[in-house]
Write a structure and sequence with these properties.
Layout: H1 11-17, H2 21-33, H3 38-51, H4 55-66, H5 72-87, H6 102-106, H7 119-122, H8 125-134, H9 139-150, H10 154-166, H11 177-189
The structure holds iron/sulfur cluster.
Iron/sulfur cluster binds at residues 20-22, 102, 105-106, 118-120, 154-155, 158, 174, 177, 180.
Length: 190
């Protein structure tokens, strides 16, 4: 079935209410620095496509942010716009790529200055703890989430994060960022 189109103007609000921590993080980095490295643009771009951001809207969305820096215009034409076309199967191998699963994100390599990856797997415990607090989670949630992350149970930690931020658990253990999004949106429709 055809996905409902997501209004790009709602993305900021959705990022706070419905995005998993991995995607919310990339969104916030993009908004604050007007830049994301290649792997993040692919990963976050495919997630946005998965929630219903159409091709033309995606081009506008990325262009608005990425051209805010000094050499952004040139880079957008030369490099960044290709990434948007690629994500939507309009360049390169012309594959209609699907958004990455948690497993793929968790097992990816994240280098310095990169923001893709799973926060429960790739972040320092101290940074994770701080972010959880900023997102309104109390000690009764932070402690088990940090334990789960430390024990390598990243998706269960994410499921607990969902529970703490929605006052109820998701229907299924989180295994895909777009599943997280859909479960969160469904709750807000009740
Ligand atoms: Fe994102 Fe999946 Fe990690 Fe949750 S478990 S933060 S959805 S990669």
């Amino acid at each position: 079935t055809e996905k409902d189109r997501v209004d790009p103007a709602l993305i900021d609000d959705y990022s706070r209410k419905h995005f998993p921590l991995c995607m919310r993080t990339m969104h916030e980095v993009l908004r604050s620095t007007h830049h994301l490295k290649h792997h993040s643009r692919v990963e976050y771009g495919l997630f946005l496509k998965g929630i219903g951001l159409l091709y033309d809207d995606a081009m506008t969305f990325w262009k608005q942010e990425l051209t805010k820096t000094a050499d952004g215009d040139k880079k957008f034409e030369r490099e960044y716009s290709y990434c948007v076309r690629y994500n939507y199967g309009k360049a390169g191998k012309a594959v209609n790529w699907t958004p990455y699963s948690c497993n793929k994100i968790i097992t990816s390599n994240v280098g310095p200055g990169e923001h893709h990856g799973c926060p429960f797997r790739h972040w320092d415990a101290a940074i994770l703890k701080q972010k959880l607090g900023e997102h309104g989670i109390g000690a009764e949630g932070i402690i088990p989430i940090l334990d789960l992350a430390k024990g390598g149970h990243y998706q269960i930690a994410c499921t607990k994060y969902f529970e703490c931020t929605h006052n109820q658990p998701p229907v299924m253990t989180i295994n895909h960022p777009n599943q997280y999004f859909e479960e969160s949106v469904n709750l807000s429709k009740d």
